[in-house]
Amino acid sequence: MGVTVTVGEQDAYLARVGRAGMLLLPMITGIGEQVRAWADELAGEGITALAWDPFKGRSTDNTSRQELSGLLRQMDDDTALAEQSALLDYLVDELGCSKVGVIGWCLGGRFAFLLGARDQRVANVVAFHPTVPSDRPPHHTYDAIAEAAGITAPVLVSYPSADTAVPNSDFETLQTVLQARTAGATFTQYFPGADHGFSDKSRHDKEVNADAFRLAWPQALAFMKATVA
Questions:
Q1: Dienelactone hydrolase domain location, by residue (predicted)?
Q2: Whole-structure pTM value
């Protein structure tokens, strides 16, 4: 089981085991039970996992999704990226991780692209159903699809065809951008009929979502282990 640690002025969830590391960027749930379970699972696979807290102690453990969505609309890209960079520093400088990747879900998948484009220390980028619509909402300062061109690490992106937050045309543009890079392999998972956020257990009452995650997660684990071990 992991513990809460303080990094500068922010708290994060840490499951520590060794010198391979992953920074976890949660979905709308924040550091809820599910994200902590994923961090613990990564630690069980030999990967130190550190989870960013986007909502400062609020998560689906104690706050409604409606309230969390309101907090998300107030989030500042530069502030969030600075917090994530500080957590990368902590993984490398304080915990001594020799390789560190980043994995994000939904809003975290978007930030995984932005962070991976900015920090060449990142050894991989994993994005589950990233929220990267070309029609950006006001709180999206940066175009994550365009910025993905600057990622030099290997990327694994997992996309559901019934994603109502990101049209298929935007995913196709993202694929074009990623595959045009001169460095960094691109791995794609595509799940017909699955919904945005299919990783979320609350969506697994729909069989297509549960099946998508059942197939996607082992491949992502293997990718992470191959790139940070």
A1: 19-226
A2: 0.97
